[in-house]
Design goal:
Order of helices and strands of chain A: EHEHEHEEH
CATH superfamily of chain A: Response regulator
Distance between the termini of chain B: 71 Å
Shape of chain A: globular
CATH architecture of chain A: 3-Layer(aba) Sandwich
Largest sheet of chain B: 7 strands, mixed
Oligomer: heterodimer
Helix content of chain A: 25-40%
Number of helices of chain B: 22
Shape of chain B: rod-shaped
Largest interface: A-B, 13 and 15 residues
CATH class of the largest domain in chain B: Mainly Alpha
Number of domains of chain A: 1
Distance between the termini of chain A: 12 Å
Strand content of chain A: 15-25%
Largest sheet of chain A: 5 strands, parallel
CATH architecture of the largest domain in chain B: Orthogonal Bundle
Number of domains of chain B: 3
Structural class of chain B: alpha+beta
Strand order of the largest sheet of chain A: 2-1-3-4-5
Radius of gyration of chain A: 13 Å
Structural class of chain A: alpha/beta
CATH superfamily of the largest domain in chain B: Hypothetical protein af1432
């Protein structure tokens, strides 16, 4: 799993730092974006193996980002993990037509996120 | 550079200059990535970069022009030619020195600047350049001869390089220094961000764990379940091989437990628990041992584990128990672990105290309930123990009917209190030996409503009122007080009705002797569907006769009854 590229998109820099450090320490290559629009550009350019995105972001929400990526054949296979604000839950139809496979509510356990990342990547590889 | 070597400039010169190429993997005072980027800039400017460490060793740019590589560097290697001069100059630099350039060897200008951090000279950066006055003069030819160098070749090499005046070189050095300072600051800031992010990640971990554990802090949950879950959760986050709990509570009599892959014998767990509680009585805070083999008190554990961490469950200076972890999967226990475990310890102590208080209140309430039912039963010597038996049988049936645990407990209570309304019925009616007159029977029937009214005032009893009010309803609708039928009768009422009738038939009454169990069961079957809910009646009939007998008539079974009662109430 190491050496895979993961795009982390969040407008809160502390989340970005926590997730990046955790993933880098686990041997992943991490690219970051601070809003949905930037994330879309980075994803189209870098073709990451996985995207971890916040739900609420300026320019483009996490859902809009994932739907946009899903529509582009170049990026339609990239799986995504969505981070949501505390107490916020998404209905199944919210994640329709997106690559979102899992959701994690903030404040999340970084250990749990890492386990989720490995699981999603393993599934994607299978 | 140390203050001492700065004061005594000659100390560096006394040593043989140690020169190595920057490609060496040896440790320098600046990271190799920054070194590489500085080298790149010095190449572009036709300069040679030298880094002088506080121990007097000099690193030079391995890829510098052959002019430097074959001429300057060999000269530096000879202490008397240039090495001592450079080191002596470098040693004299202080935090306030400004860049000054001079001619080190014929045709070569050099400028050394100190890199200062926290008012200390950390190292010296030097730039060498072809000087403006480069010519094949007498000095230069002599030096070439000494170094075995072809002067014409050297001149050809020099021709390609730009010449620097001393002033320009000093400016370049100042520029390099500020570049280096910026880069180093950036690196240290990056490290800081990394370390803060790691701390933040730990805090997140802690927060989610505490969140998870407080989610499981319902006071009426069995403490064994709570602590097992807490141990398993903490085990994941701390990454330990074994996580255990030891409680010191008179009420619960919980055995110490150890979860995880690390296995100790029950005796060892017991011994560890007792010892930990004694240690924590004195220390009252988290403690960790990372080398058990060397520990006098806990050395006996070293056969099974090598590291130990323990935290007290502390309330009002009292150690109620402790949580302990054994053997981390990687490395030693550290302050992050102790901080996390302490937070969990605090949280668990609050739970434990609440659970104990809840237990006290619960015990008090049950004690009061039992005295109340005894008082009711005492009005009529023949019904002695009736309420308790109805409660037990109703509880047993409720459990059989797969009602949820909480409801099973409430049915037990409703059973205990089903006849509490008899307090309001005259003893002349209750204890009458003959048949009741129609008037007396009407009076008797009122005990359901009286009981319901007594309980309705107690908020905690509201939910058992239906069991008390409706325990004389009949399935066919011909019962009292409301004449409800079928499924309209609350399930509590239907269950207690069966238990009540069954116990009444099998007990001695003022007006008749007890019926044998078998006869009573036949009667239940006969009235199934008319008086009783047929499904519940069938369930009662399925209970083996000897089991019923033991449940209701065996005085020696009392202890077991109590146990059954405790089990179900705890599980709720």
């Amino acid at each position: 799993m190491t050496g895979k590229t993961i795009l982390v998109a969040d407008d809160e820099s502390h989340i970005l730092s926590v997730v990046s450090v955790k993933l880098r320490n686990a041997g992943f290559r991490v690219v970051t974006a601070r809003d949905g629009r930037e994330a879309l550009e980075v994803a189209q350019h870098e073709h990451p193996d996985l995207i971890i995105t916040d739900y609420h972001m300026p320019e483009l929400s996490g859902i809009e980002l994932c739907r946009a990526l899903k529509q582009d054949p170049e990026t339609s296979n990239i799986p995504a993990i969505m981070l949501t604000a505390c107490g916020y839950s998404l209905e199944p139809h919210d994640t329709e037509n997106s690559g979102i496979l899992c959701m994690l509510s903030k404040p999340f356990s970084p250990r749990q996120l890492l386990a989720m990342v490995n699981e999603v990547l393993q599934k994607a590889a299978a | 550079m140390h203050a001492q070597s700065r004061a005594d400039g000659g100390s560096m010169a006394a040593n043989q200059p140690h020169i190595s190429a920057t490609t060496d993997s040896s440790q320098t005072w600046i990271p190799s990535t920054i070194q590489a980027s500085l080298s790149l800039h010095s190449h572009a400017a036709g300069l040679c970069l030298l880094l002088i460490q506080s121990d007097g060793s000099i690193q030079h740019d391995a890829a510098a022009s052959p002019f430097f590589d074959r001429y300057l560097i060999p000269a530096l290697r000879c202490p008397e030619l240039a090495g001592n001069q450079l080191l002596s100059h470098a040693g004299k630099l202080t935090a306030r020195s400004s860049p000054t350039a001079w001619h080190l060897v014929p045709g070569v200008a050099i400028c050394a600047v100190p890199y200062v951090e926290r008012r200390q000279v950390q190292g010296v950066l030097a730039l060498a350049a072809k000087s403006g006055d480069f010519s094949l003069g007498e000095d230069l030819l002599r030096l070439c001869c000494r170094l075995g160098l072809d002067a014409t070749w050297l001149r050809q090499q020099a021709d390609i390089l730009p010449a620097h005046s001393l002033e320009r070189l000093a400016n370049q050095a100042a520029l390099f220094l500020s570049m280096l300072t910026d880069r180093l600051r950036q690196t240290s800031l990056e490290l800081e961000v990394n370390s803060l992010s790691t701390q933040l990640a730990n805090a997140y971990e802690e927060l989610t764990l505490i969140d998870q554990i407080s989610g499981g802090m319902r006071v009426n949950r069995r403490s064994t379940d709570f602590f097992r879950q807490a141990c398993l959760d903490v085990m994941q986050v701390l990454g330990v091989r074994g996580m255990g709990v030891a409680l010191r509570t008179e009420k619960t009599h919980e055995e110490p437990a150890l979860y995880g892959e690390l296995v100790l014998s029950p005796d060892q767990v017991q011994r560890l628990a007792i010892q930990l509680l004694l240690t924590l009585d004195e220390r009252k805070s988290c403690f960790l041992i990372n080398d058990l083999a060397k520990d006098k008190a806990y050395g006996w554990l070293s056969g099974s584990a090598s590291r130990l961490i323990a935290v007290p469950l502390l309330r009002r200076e009292q150690v109620l128990g402790c949580l302990f972890g054994l053997d981390k999967l990687n490395g030693d226990f550290d302050s992050v672990d102790s901080k996390l475990l302490s937070a969990i310890g605090n949280e668990s102590a609050i739970y434990l105290e609440n659970a104990m208080l809840y237990g006290d209140v619960h015990d008090l309430m049950m004690g009061l309930l039992h005295s109340l039912t005894s008082a009711v039963d005492a009005k009529d010597a023949y019904t002695c123990g009736h309420s308790e038996r109805v409660a037990l049988l109703a509880q047993y049936m409720a459990a059989k009917a797969s009602l949820v645990d909480a409801q099973v407990e409430r049915i037990y209570m409703a059973g205990l209190l089903h006849d509490v309304g008899k307090i309001g019925i005259p003893e002349s009616v209750l204890q009458k030996t003959g048949r009741l007159t129609a008037e007396e029977f009407e009076l008797m029937k009122r005990h359901c409503q009286i009981g319901a009214r007594i309980l309705a005032d107690v908020k905690q009893m509201e939910d058992i009122v239906p069991g008390v009010l409706h325990h004389h309803e009949r399935y066919d609708g011909r019962g009292y007080p409301m004449g409800l039928s079928g499924r309209d009768i609350p399930v509590m009422g239907r269950i207690i009705c069966l238990a009540d009738c069954f116990d009444a038939m099998t007990s001695n009454r003022t007006y008749r002797k007890a019926l044998p169990l078998e006869v009573a069961l036949t009667e239940i079957r006969r009235c199934s569907g008319t008086q009783f809910d047929p499904a519940l009646a069938e369930m009662l009939l399925q209970i083996p006769v000897d089991h019923l007998h033991r449940l209701l008539r065996d005085p020696e079974h009392l202890a077991a009854k109590q146990l059954l009662f405790q089990e179900t109430t705890r599980a709720a």
